[in-house]
Design goal:
mainly alpha, 434 Repressor (Amino-terminal Domain), 4 helices, single chain
């Protein structure tokens, strides 16, 4: 999914710290369900779409 957002723009939109988003994107750490929900809301997609295939 490509929304043409920088990590910083997405982090701001999702109300998560840019470092947290970068770590999640690289798979460095597991995310809380609340963080997944924030990212899904920021992207305007269901959380299940972000978790598909996990």
């Amino acid at each position: 999914m490509n929304r043409s957002l920088t990590q910083e723009e997405l982090a701001h939109r999702c109300r998560v710290h840019p470092v947290e988003l970068a770590r999640a994107e690289r798979g460095v750490r597991d995310m809380r369900v609340s963080t997944v929900a924030k990212i899904a809301a920021g992207l305007r997609v269901p959380a299940s779409e972000l978790l598909a295939g996990v």
